[in-house]
Design brief:
Distance between the termini of chain A: 33 Å
Largest interface: A-B, 59 and 59 residues
Helix content of chain A: 40-55%
Number of helices of chain A: 11
Strand order of the largest sheet of chain A: 3-2-1-4-12-11-5
Largest sheet of chain A: 7 strands, mixed
CATH topology of one domain in chain A: Isopropylmalate Dehydrogenase
Order of helices and strands of chain A: EHEHEHHEHEEEHEHEEHHEEHH
Oligomer: homodimer
Strand content of chain A: 15-25%
CATH class of one domain in chain A: Alpha Beta
Chain lengths: 333, 333
């Protein structure tokens, strides 16, 4: 599998990105790695890592698209950016997947414009794998690429999410719909209509799911309008960070016993933190475009990038794009 | 202040409800307490608490509305229920506030039907006070009473939320709008239109707020469509519970050091838990009806009910209903 990595996208680029991509290569020698960005800088980082540049193809791209750029304009004008160079390479040189930790807007806009949609897909969706308390994962689709969705789009998200989970080995994935109540009659206009479509579909639809149950392990795919999914994802993220901060404050501000206790549970805490840290699962798949595209968190460090590259590799090897194309032929009906 | 409490609403009714209401009375002797429900059972609980029934008015109401009842039908048919008896008392006997931990749908439907709206209010909204990491509180309005809101309704939620926070002593409350991005141009059709209205209003509007920042302390009022607010609230609740469970598992399953550490930080953990437990703030205010109505969490125990009764007392004493009526005269424009 040939995987293109945007070495200059993200808060910790380029050092952590290059390091993570090399880490993936060391974990799976079958990967052909392409890095885009400033060639001299990338070569310097590789030499610091004592890694031979011969095993990696470098595409020189001197400019960078940042979060301050307007996505559509930047994709059109900054053709020499690491992001556009990566997407162009993906399209023209028959690579299999693309990974970037750059501006979400620019990655999604760029992928949609340059790579295009799979046949019958109305709108691609951004789908992270979230951790559940029982150790399983749930795919939240969509978490922000599309707001003001139509019910048919939510059905398509279900079909694509189902195809992805099957591709990574989940048998007969349980598909749920994010809603303000578990009962069938509950919901806003959009979710009521989407519920009816999902219920009639060929999917293993298990009904509505409330936001409090996302991490419960009760479903494998959670279908949502991008606005709803975004709120659920960010509320969870914010709460998790706030609790861990409060926990730290409680331990450091709680006297000698608490400090000693904190030291004793440090290892357990760390393993717990890694369980709920969804960035350790890699990134969010941009499902529905004609190549595998993975958007890693903007704050991704080497470990996340490594996981994202391996995730992209796995999806490409599993033939995800072809499988979605097949599933979308009849759109789940 | 005369406060009516539905003694038979909620998972832990009637014992915990009666106990909590009595607790509020002991904390503030100025409260006139009315309990609705099975008179003999209430009297028995009071006698077990060694509390004289003379200080409390009891309205006998033998039946109960449960979560399985269809709200509108139950409000109309179960006129001898503790909930309907409470709302009827509130309306006819010039009481000041009502507290119930019963079925959310039935409490909201009942209050809207029996008590009615404040003039110029299109739709009342359910508004809990949520804890922030800096010790402040943020009022989330609406958290589920209204889905598919119109932009004008969100402006009204802002006006009512502002009036409530002023009534409980917050100066010049900062009003934010729950959105999928902080930038002004971000959002779904509803939030974009609501943003424009809030920006033009007399409120101290501080812009869009992402769900990850709810607990940050960056605003005093968070305006949301009930569907969006519901997802944010429940995602936070679910994440908090999941993390505390994982933390417990990590400690109990982590060997002797972790167990000892867990014992040593127990006190700090408990104080942290009480900080993030929004049920300790009382309940969610049903803002926009012509009396103070507080919906306590269905799982409320005595402590939460006590806080909810004191919260209702405070809101009634502050003249919340009159203040909202005043603010709604020009609807924030």
């Amino acid at each position: 599998m040939k995987i293109v990595v945007d070495a200059f996208g993200g808060d910790n680029a380029p050092e952590e990105i290059v390091k993570g991509a090399v880490g993936a290569l060391l974990a799976d020698g079958g990967i052909d790695l392409v890095l885009t960005g400033k060639e001299d800088v990338i070569k310097k980082i590789l030499s610091e890592l004592n890694f031979s540049p011969d095993r990696i193809e470098i595409v020189n791209a001197p400019s960078v698209i940042t979060n301050d750029d307007v996505p559509t304009a930047a994709i059109r004008s900054k053709t020499d950016s690491s992001l556009v160079a990566g997407l162009d390479y993906l399209k023209k040189n028959n690579a299999d997947a693309f990974v970037s930790a750059g501006s979400t807007g620019a990655v999604l806009t760029g992928a949609a414009l340059k790579i295009g949609r799979i046949e019958n897909v109305t709108r691609p969706a951004l789908a992270p794998l979230l951790p559940c308390v029982d150790g399983s994962k749930i795919l939240l689709i969509d978490c922000g690429a599309n707001v003001d969705c139509r019910p048919e789009m939510l059905l398509q998200f279900g079909v694509m999410g189902d195809a992805y989970m099957r591709a990574i080995g989940v048998k007969n994935p349980r598909v749920a719909l994010l809603n303000n109540g578990a009962e069938e009659k509950k919901g806003c206009e959009l979710t009521k209509a989407a519920h009816a479509l999902l219920k009639e579909s060929v999917l293993n639809f298990v009904g509505n799911m409330e936001a409090r149950d996302i991490m419960s392990g009760g479903a494998d795919v959670l279908v949502a309008d991008g606005f709803h999914g975004n709120i659920a994802l960010k509320a969870s993220e914010g709460t998790a960070l706030s609790i861990l901060k409060l926990l730290k404050d409680a331990i450091t501000g709680g006297g000698i016993a608490a400090k000693l206790g904190g030291a004793l549970i440090k290892k357990s805490l760390k393993s717990m933190k890694s369980k709920i840290d969804y960035t350790e699962s890699g990134g969010a798949l941009f499902v529905g475009v004609s190549k595998v595209v993975v958007k890693a968190h903007g704050s991704a460090k080497a470990g996340t990038i490594r996981a994202a590259v391996l995730q992209a590799n796995e999806a490409a090897k599993a033939g995800l794009v072809e499988k979605i194309g097949e599933a979308m032929k009849d759109g789940g009906r």
